[in-house]
Request: fold
Amino acid sequence: MITRILTDVALMSAIGGILALIMVIAQRWLSNYGEVSININGKRELKVTGGNTLLSTLSDQQIFIPSACGGRGSCGACKCKVESGGGPLLPTERPLLTKEEMASNVRLACQVKVKSDIHIHIPESIFNIRRFNSVVEEIIDYTYDIKGITFKLIEGQSIDFKAGQYVQLESQPYEKIKDKVIRAYSISSKPELKDRIQLIIRQVPDGICTTWVHKHVKVGDKVNFTGPYGDFYLRDTEADILFVAGGSGKAPIKSILEHLKEVGTERRMTYFFGARTRKDLYLSEEMQAFEKVFTQFEYVPVLSHPETEDNWTGKTGFVMPYFKDAIRDPKNTEAYLCGSPGMISAVTKSLKEYGIYEDKIYYDSFG
Amino acid sequence: MTVLGDIMKKTPNEKKILAKMQPGIITYGGFLGTDKRSYLQIIADDEKALEALGKTAEEIADRLEFFQQKSFDSFEASTVVDDTWEVETEVVRGYLPCPFLHQGMYRKSYTTVKNLKSKKSFTFSALNIHLIRVHHFFEGKNSHFRMEPADLLKELF
Amino acid sequence: MDISAFVLFWAAIFTSNILLTNFLGMCSYLSVSREIESSAGLGVAVIFVLTVTSALNWLVYNYILLPFDIVYLQYIVFIIVIAAFVQFLELLIERYAPALYYTLGIFLPLITVNCAIFGVSLFMIIRNYNFLQSIAFGAGSGIGWLLAIMMLAGIRRKLKEKMVPQGLQGAGISLIITGIMAMGFVGFSGIVQIQ
Reply:
């Protein structure tokens, strides 16, 4: 009896084993596409192992094409241009592409398999988005609830961003918080610094990530973030500029100004900063110092609720009434706003009344 | 409903909702505070209290939304409503989802209403208005945004 | 079983259609029959896999399971053989015939778990077919399956413009239609007796 059981099990295992062996050999021989190269935008050449989908191969290389369905070919978000090497269009892609897209070689990255050298084209903004590892280099207290934190990239990484864009910071578990969370913060340092970024982060009451940043992060800690994201960045024109910021909205404007200092500009610029009381003002000397750097720049802090002990002699109330003097030619003025939705809508409304074109008003709303 | 009965009868959905209400999932402090009751019990108890007070959760939500709108109308800066209440809203970047697994996100806006006569003040978020209106949920005892229906009625109407 | 392989082939297509008389292979039949093109692709893949796996399983049964007296393990062994073959085929086609892979290969994973394939392997053992008969039966069953799914896909295309009561939309109406088609096919089952 026992020998019967043993031989049957052995036979069964042998059948399974032989089939598995055949599969393993087949996998080695048939699915080995070796090392292939992916050429992106004709600028960057990646050496990757072939055989996987374009979407997963790129994400292994820290290039994140948007995808909502996770690569099942049902959302159509991962469209990208495959110039050559993508193979024929698949039936699984057809329903999600328009005729024009098919004609211009647009494919779904989650369906295209990387089997040979491939040449693709993706938007520059996506191309630059990556996950970065960094070490906290410096923490500055700007006010009682606003900190400026500098993250130095490690392992020779470098970040390409436009002044005004933001990154998404990953917090680590702490105290009773068991999961990491991801939150967006604007970069406040200039894009010319490619090996580090600074973020200005305000403590939000009960905020999971800001509490972590304010109470737990120390110099030398390892922190990860992805980016850069966002379409709030300086347009390269010669028009006059109005900057309007509130609260921690100073970050992207600081980045833009430092960038302009680096490249030099003759543009006429006015920067309105709205805060409640004097203790909410920060970076004032740095901003005033720009008045000496640029030929035509003015920094205008406006307090909405100055307290008597503030001895505030500057402008008070809302920022809107003061635009009148700052606008020279409304048809040739761009506005860059960063702050709460209420501030953005109020300022936008007012700027339009002054005659500034709506499509020249760029904003980064908290939300 | 006994506590034991509560535990036994939890549906998968209720477990998911309970998980969302824990500290650090949606908000730093969670939605239940130090309350030992189940969230269903909290809702039931507050509904009973409201019935005794003769107001509905919808009416309270309408009132809170009215104050929120007043402060939005003045671009979130502080403003006085009907000479009795000082209202102001603070907005920070981002949105919060509803712990009851509803679709939709609520802006991180925190409106503070201060009754100038009694000097008592309440702070609530856009999510709180939704929680009260749709779920009749005023949060657990000692939760950061817990508001007692009786206090709200006394100070805000 | 004393029946010519040729007759068995035709019988498997029409009078003993694997899908319409045995109702095997329903899942992919219902889900893929939404489009005629996909139905045709899947049908061709089923024909191919059925033919080859019935031959393979016949060999495995007669030269491994019978001599070693482990017939009671046939279910497991048949399933492994089918799964391994389909997987192997997918790898092979993907590598050497990319064009074919894109029209046919993407349906292969669906077939691994198609019960019509397993059913055919079991029938040929139960009915004691010889090697040639098994291949004919396998190929015929595959063509029969293709025929059935193409008919349903055609009808469903017409149905798209028709008003179907809400509760019956999708799988509901498809099953009713399949039932009516099955009645038509069963009517011919007396012509040839294959079991």
Summary: The radius of gyration of chain C is 17 Å. Chain C touches chain A at residues 37-38, 41, 60, 64, 68, 70, 73, 76-77, 80-81, 84, 87-88, 91-92, 94-95, 98-99, 102-103, 106 (CB under 8 Å).
